[in-house]
């Protein structure tokens, strides 16, 4: 499995998307403000996603 890099757009957890801001050994930190409707979803601005739980889309 290819790990995301800083700046990649990833999809995780049932269609949520975000921009990778930092890559850690087992996870990435993602800025979810990339999604137009992130405020409607009542999410935090950033979240941590394990490398096993996303796919790179851009």
UniProtKB/TrEMBL annotation:
<protein>
    <submittedName>
        <fullName>DUF2187 domain-containing protein</fullName>
    </submittedName>
</protein>
<dbReference type="Pfam" id="PF09953">
    <property type="entry name" value="DUF2187"/>
</dbReference>
<dbReference type="InterPro" id="IPR018690">
    <property type="entry name" value="DUF2187"/>
</dbReference>
């Amino acid at each position: 499995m290819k790990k995301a890099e800083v700046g990649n757009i990833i999809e995780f957890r049932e269609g949520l998307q975000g921009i990778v801001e930092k890559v850690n050994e087992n996870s990435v930190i993602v800025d979810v403000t990339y999604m137009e409707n992130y405020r409607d979803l009542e999410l935090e601005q950033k979240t941590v996603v394990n490398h096993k739980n996303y796919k790179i889309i851009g």
